[in-house]
Write a structure and sequence with these properties.
Number of domains: 1
Strand content: under 5%
Mean pLDDT: 83
Radius of gyration: 14 Å
Number of helices: 4
Number of strands: 0
Low-confidence stretches: none
Shape: elongated
Structural class: mainly alpha
């Protein structure tokens, strides 16, 4: 869900505002912050990294750190995505 939100929704909102914009995901997040679409772009990058971690096999310690991080950040994600305005 995080990846879809970042790579589809955020990119779409930025490109609607600035059709010529081009950059990395980090650039899109920074631009979205300036547009007041989201806060804390660095946190969103960290959440994306969590998504990348879960896509691979890791040791039990890595899995435990992943689950702990996921639990800590889940409230942030739910709150942030819940506050996104849906425009028709």
């Amino acid at each position: 869900m995080i990846d879809i939100f970042l790579t589809k929704y955020i990119k779409l909102k930025v490109l609607i505002n600035d059709p010529g914009f081009d950059g990395t995901l980090r650039d899109y997040l920074n631009h979205a912050e300036k547009m007041r679409i989201l806060n804390e772009p660095e946190k969103w990058m960290a959440l994306r990294e969590l998504r990348n971690i879960q896509a691979h096999d890791y040791t039990e310690d890595d899995l435990e750190r992943f689950l702990t991080s996921l639990e800590l950040e889940s409230e942030f994600v739910i709150h942030a995505i819940g506050n996104v305005e849906i425009e028709n």
